[in-house]
Amino acid sequence: MPPTAKAQLYRARYLVPMAGEPLEDGAVLVEAGRIVAVGPYATLRRHHAALIDCGDAILLPPLVNAHTHLELTDFPTWAAALADLAAGETFVDWIRRVVQVKRARSGDDFAASVKHGIAQSLAAGTGAVGDILSHFAACSAYAASPLRGRLFFETLGHDPARTQPQLQEIATLLAAGLCGRLLPGLAPHAPYSLSAAHLAATVAQALREQAPLTLHAAESREEVALIRAAAGPIAQVLYPLAGWELPSPQHSSPIAYLSRQGALTPGMLLVHGVQVDAADVALIAAAGCGMVLCPRSNARLGVGTAPAALYRQLGVPLALGTDSLASNDSLSLWDEIAAARRVYPAFSPLELLHLATAGGAALLGLQGEMGTLQSGSGAHFQLLRPNSLPALAELAEFLASPGRSAEVAELFLDGEEVLAKEPALRL
Questions:
Q1: pTM value?
Q2: What topology is assigned to 63-363 in CATH?
Q3: What is the pLDDT of residue 107?
């Protein structure tokens, strides 16, 4: 269908479609919230459309934060109120602190925190998230949000008297459908925090309901010690604190344990994947799971660095996530890209941008809709307005450098402006 007078043509100094090479003086033709065409302005200017000249800006897809916990956006403030901003703590110390801080908050606190997280995400050019929610009543906070993606309802525990009601409540939430614009799914927390029976029941429910799954896996050495030998700080500290009975040693890695349990399912979103070897990565690839890398959170908690190049080599689809503000400094995926540039040197700047856009969109089931700028996809894009622009040949390196988050000027979802710090000129 040819564009009509209701179409808009967005022109920018640089266009980064992620479905092709970056180009100078590019344009995106939009009509009725969809992209009609992408290419050089000189080619698209012939269309009968209202021109929106973005000037010296960079136009590219929104970022996709494939793993976060928006309910913990206010965590730094909550922890400060308890005089509990610990430094140099261990992974298990950190878990205990998160539990303590969360227990001191009300349901209204979590709903407000989600709203703050949504606002911070949009301000950083994020258009979709893979968000995890443990306080289910805060689901209402997403009702008016323009964010796309997945909302995973978290479950954990060992006692059937508590875990079965969790799954029943999640079943009701799944049946209710969208939470705002987010598709619901399930988040069995981690191999160390679920009994084998509860893990199996959660995965079975997700498969039965055809709901997406996500799971933290192989994040720390402490997790490995618990699964392999029923030993270490998780066994010594967390299990007594929770009143859980220690499981039998599995004599294997967390990934091998999940595989034996039938808990690695096609399309499943694994998170962290730091403490793995080549055999583990091969199991993940064979199962058809994706992996979300969270380099800043991993660094903050001192758990190591995920072998991103090995994942890529063995064909595991990858994306980037910020995790929460309980283990990170910001919800900006631009900041995550800059960190990834330092810790994953085998990845080019453009490859890291792919993980943060098309890669995340694919893992959240949004491929073809978000993550790339191409004919037929949704009119989802952001505009960056740096004080000075690099040459085209240096653009990808520039975008993967620190400081980009502050340069996000506008964000459009379905062709509607949802963030306008520095609006473009409409002609």
A1: 0.96
A2: TIM Barrel (3.20.20)
A3: 83
